[in-house]
Specification:
By secondary structure, the protein is mainly α. It is 53% helix and 6% strand. It contains 14 helices and five strands.
Length: 295
């Protein structure tokens, strides 16, 4: 239970805990595909800690008591059941979304749009994009190694160890290579330098992106009111599947533990299904399969 709460919130003093911090933490757990019980029990841990702080007079209320996250969790589950219903249709729509998010943000920070494009083109989660470092990019093979992530917590680095954080390698298409080179040029050149950061240099989480860009308002205006930040990952995986990437390589790129999850992105080929039926009929009518009898 503490595996989610400590890495995400363990570095925040109880006197600085806010509803916003708790809300962002819960959204990150949902994006990481943590189970409902893990999220519920992690919230309970933080609530108990803050209740003690309240009794000790360190805070005047318990900001960890939040509601509504169950709706977001249910929505995420629905996405996984039918991920092909959620992606953006094409490159033009993706770039249009990125432009609108930048325009709607208070600071017109171009990085918001860059994160969105990079996430969709690499089938990555927003948290993984935020954790991308110079040393993770191979500009010769044009591949990005998404490593198991760690975060700073009590006693040093803590392995987040969450579902979906398996190390994997994803291809970097030509459309994002110039963007990557530009981001590398803005760093100090060290392998640990992060490529994608917020306007103040902070880490970008799904909730930070949502709030800074007025995400809900923008996607509704664009005609995709059900699109979430995690929908960018669904977009990338659906595009790869439609491009003809076989299910086994798609599973490796996605980092799915079960191939059943990956198969949900494969578009059902109805002609292929018909041909399969014809082949079975042929086999059963052959001497090898025995004649098919219709009663």
């Amino acid at each position: 239970m503490a595996e989610a709460a400590v890495p995400t919130l363990g570095h925040i003093p109880v006197t600085m805990m806010t509803n916003g911090a708790m809300d962002r933490a819960v959204h990150s757990w949902i994006e990481d595909e943590c189970s409902r019980s893990t999220i519920k029990n992690s919230i309970a841990i933080v609530v108990r800690v803050m209740e003690q702080a309240l009794r000790d007079g360190l805070v005047d209320r318990n900001p960890a008591r939040i509601s509504g996250w169950q709706r977001e969790f249910a929505r995420a589950e629905d996405e996984l059941d039918n991920p092909r219903a959620l992606p953006l249709p094409d490159w033009h729509t993706l770039t249009r979304l990125a432009e609108m998010l930048v325009t709607r943000s208070a600071d017109n920070y171009a990085g918001w749009g860059e994160v969105v494009i990079f996430a969709a083109c690499t089938s990555a989660r927003i948290g993984e994009v935020s954790g991308c470092r110079v040393g993770d990019i191979d500009t010769k093979k044009w591949q990005w190694t998404i490593r198991r992530q760690t975060t700073t917590g009590p006693g040093g680095l803590i392995d987040k160890g969450t579902k979906g954080k398996r190390a994997r390698v994803v291809p970097l298409i030509e459309d994002v290579r110039e963007l990557i080179q530009q981001r590398i040029a803005t760093t100090d050149g060290t392998t640990d330098a992060r490529l994608f950061r917020g306007p103040r240099g902070g880490r970008i989480s799904t909730a930070v992106l949502r709030d800074a860009t007025h995400w809900g308002e923008v996607v509704t205006k664009l005609g995709y009111e059900h699109l979430t930040r995690h929908g960018l990952r669904h977009t990338g995986l659906t595009w790869l599947a439609d491009a003809g990437v076989d299910v086994y390589n798609l599973q490796r790129i996605a980092g799915h533990g079960s191939i059943t999850t990956t198969q949900r992105y494969i578009h059902p080929d109805m002609r292929g299904i018909e041909e399969a039926g014809e082949l079975l009929t042929e086999h059963l009518r052959s001497p090898r399969g025995g004649r098919l009898r219709v009663v």
